[in-house]
Amino acid sequence: MKYTYNTKGVCSSTITFEIENDIVTSVQFVGGCNGNLKGISSLVVGMKVDDVIGRLEGIRCGFKSTSCPDQLAKALTAAKQNG
Question: Does residue 18 contact residue 24 with C-beta atoms inside 8 Å?
Answer without folding.
Answer: yes
